[in-house]
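Margin note: ligand = 2'-monophosphoadenosine-5'-diphosphate.
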Amino acid sequence: MRFLTGKARLAGVIGWPVGHSRSPRLHGFWIERHRLDAAYVPLAVRPDSLVVALSGLRAAGFAGANVTIPHKQAAMALCDRVEPFARKAGAVNTIVFEAGAVVGRNTDGFGFVANLRSHGVAPAAGPALVLGAGGAAMAVAAALQDEGASVRIANRTRARAEALAGSLGGIAVVAWEDISGALADVALLVNTTSLGMTGQPPLEIDLAGAPPDLAVADIVYAPLETRLLAAARAAGLRAVEGLGMLLHQARPGFAAWFGVDPEVDAALYEVVAADLRT
Ligand code: ATR
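Resulting structure:
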């Protein structure tokens, strides 16, 4: 164990509760690997304390913070500047305290696309079908659009899919009941719902009608391999697991706070995956 100096760079993750967050583990891994004079800590902040916590961290010289549930929307209103992608996604997950300003970013879209690419999947090879209409769906759909993909959305509650399509523009809504039949001309299927997560029901979808070059991505990472991904692999399709998105979305924050663009590799994957298995 190395010790911090008085000049150490500081960052952390703000959440309530924050105990479930994997971010201290993964940022800590990179800090160790690069032997940085830096620390990344969990910050348990109640919703009604977000304002005071942010100004306190800034006053105390923190370089910035990640923001997780339930603060992602509220944090946006507290930033002096919000990057265009975060504005589009409607949420901030990364805050950088710059000289004169609190800057809000959303790195989920970057993480999703970087994870696809690391699996050799081109984000805009053809139409993408995104399942779900929550905050994660918004970031994924916006990122795919930015990459030039044509995006379709299906959600159990159709009105939410229509609201998301309306806010991003240029998105077709597919009926939830029709998702299996809607795969025929799709190049990428993405699950952003909570279906398949430990303790939740599985996603019911029939991949029999999928084209052979379909890539299937799940943003669920607990379990590491969902039934959807196992079914995709069994059908000979490419499968992209969710943990990689979590790891890649952490990179821009780390680079901004600590000055090193860190690498997502097998060693990091194993450390965080081992944590998830316990
Ligand atoms: P997040 O912001 O993390 O993406 P969310 O807003 O809670 O999460 O969204 C969860 C997604 O999972 C929603 O798209 C939700 O569908 P509804 O909008 O109809 O609620 C979807 N979801 C959760 N349970 C589901 C279920 N049993 N069947 C189908 N979709 C489900």
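The mean pLDDT is 97.
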